[in-house]
Amino acid sequence: MGDYRVKITDGPLSDLRVIEMGHVIAAPMCGALLSDFGADVIKIERPGQGDMLRVLSARAKDGVGVWWKTLARNKRLVALDWKTEDGREVLRRLVENAQVLIENFRPGVLERAGLAPEVLHGWNPDLVIVRISGYGQTGPRSSWPGFGRAGEAMSGLAHITGFADNAPMHPGFPAADSTTGLMAAYGAMMALHAVQNGSARGQVVDLAIFEPLLRLIDYHVPTRTGAGLPVDRNGLQAPNSYAPAGVFRARDGKWVTISAGSAATGRRLLEAAGGKEWAEQPQFQSLDGFAEHMDEIVDRLGAFVAQHDAQKAIDIFQAHDAVAAMVYDVDDILADPQIAARGDIVGVEGDDTKVVGPVPKLDKTPGRLRWLGRRELGADSRAVLEELGYDAGKIDKLTENGTVAEPKR
């Protein structure tokens, strides 16, 4: 499974050292995305406790949480109490030798510990500090606690998800946390580029958990402000019902999703399901016409899919160059030849747990899974401290007084 004790030396980000002081999902996702492409991510956990993410999911056969395995992948693990005087000195040395620090504490936690950005930048003026919180570092709600579901609610995602006559729905995965991790990695890379091209030194990347989804949904704000239209839950249809879309049950019980992005692609769906004569009717020459007849369209598309097994219906749509796809469960994902051909599911030798591989795919400097998150709290504490210049005696002393933890030898 690789040697965790040596500094990573391959990947396009192998010259970066990242300190991850985060916990649970958003900050660890940011660190994992950077680690996939070679960054030396040093994850700091509290001695005796560790990240709650360790116990926040189902356990693999070896007893390690599967969520931990994937979000702590490729990371070196240091157990450090950075609130003590000795721990602060270790953290200072880490900061002096790093390019990025990621944290997702409630605003004020670092400041109360004497670790405000100005202090960290005093130690390392070029440090990029990624700060993730429920509502951001500024504004009237900045001190409020906030988890991902609050972000999904505030962004508008929950409001536009579900059926009009039912309650708003949250997605089936931590969308706000995960997209925040992705946006945080993007922000870190922009800030690092600013350091590299001389346009700025180290700076703070400030992310509220609701903001990435707010940005990625995007269309609801201009729809309301520009067109004066509300954006509400619309079931399985496309936003505002401007283009044909839906999820329909096939004869064999499987589900098929279909969609179109223009009047031309919409007519292909209609031709596949109802013939050329139906598709070429005058009302289907524009998206406005589609919107006016959406109930009829949905009923006929649903009836067509119900007459066929799912794959047969998809084949007919494909023959008309129309977009249709099977709704996959996880077993479908693991069995799909396209996903396999892309190398999207990966693992490491000696561990049955598989995870989603690095994305995106770079043809010259691709990402790589080196190891999965490990059970041992502080697995790399000694190795990292040695790299920082601590001798064996000093490390033993820090371990004995509880500042640092490492696995029992």
From TrEMBL:
Highest taxon of source: Bacteria
SUPFAM superfamilies to which the protein is assigned, alphabetical: CoA-transferase family III (CaiB/BaiF)
InterPro entries assigned to the protein according to its UniProt record, in alphabetical order: CoA-transferase_III, CoA-Trfase_fam_III, CoA-Trfase_III_dom3_sf, CoA-Trfase_III_dom_1_sf
UniProt entry keywords in alphabetical sequence: Transferase
One MF annotation (Gene Ontology) recorded for this entry: transferase activity
Leader sequence residues: none
Family matches, as PANTHER family: L-CARNITINE COA-TRANSFERASE, SUCCINYL-COA--D-CITRAMALATE COA-TRANSFERASE
Protein name: Acyl-CoA transferase
